[in-house]
Amino acid sequence: MAIESDDDLREVLASDVVAVVGCSTTPGKDAHEIPRYLHENGYEVIPVNPNADEIFGRPAYDSLADVEEDIEVVDVFRPSEEVGEIVDAALAREDAPVVWTQLGIRDDEALSRAEEGGLRVVADRCMKVEHSRLA
Predict the structure, then answer these.
(1) pLDDT tens digits for 2-23?
(2) How far apart are the first and last CA of the chain?
């Protein structure tokens, strides 16, 4: 189900655990600053980046499949052409009910597949902007 209403967005934003695929170690990059904002605002941010050992004091996982904790939202900071494989990884888990792609990141076919698989989808929106607006 595509999430578009403010009420549905608030419900997703009430989640606690966000796996950030493509979380960056580089301050100043959106893929670092937005997860940092989420971390500072009470979210448990699980970084997924095969090129990092640790981000925000947490071990970084190589892939979504490697994450040991339960996940409530998969937040995607990877190019649109990688969304399909991330959706497949989210569908393979039984604990990742929401896939959120950040601004400018979209693969309608993959997101349709996510919805058909029972996942809720927020597409082409910034989690920080929506949290700031709706909190």
Answers:
(1) 898 999 999 999 999 999 999 9
(2) 22
- Tokens, residue 38: 């989420």
Closest by Cα among 115, 118, 109, 44 to 83 = 109
Length of the chain: 135
Tokens of 100: 């959120």
Please say whether the dihedral angle defined by the alpha carbons of residues 74, 79, 80 and 83, taken in this order, is positive or negative.
negative
Domain boundaries, the chain: 6-134
- Contact between 47 and 102 (Cβ < 8 Å): no
Tell me the DSSP string of 68-128: -S--SEEEE-S-GGGHHHHHHHHHHSSS--EEEEPTT---HHHHHHHHHTT-EEE-S--HH
Domain 6-134 class? alpha beta
The string of pLDDT tens digits covering residues 21-56 is: 999 999 999 999 999 999 999 999 999 999 999 999
pTM, whole model, 2 decimals?
Answer: 0.96
Q: What is the DSSP letter of 64?
A: G
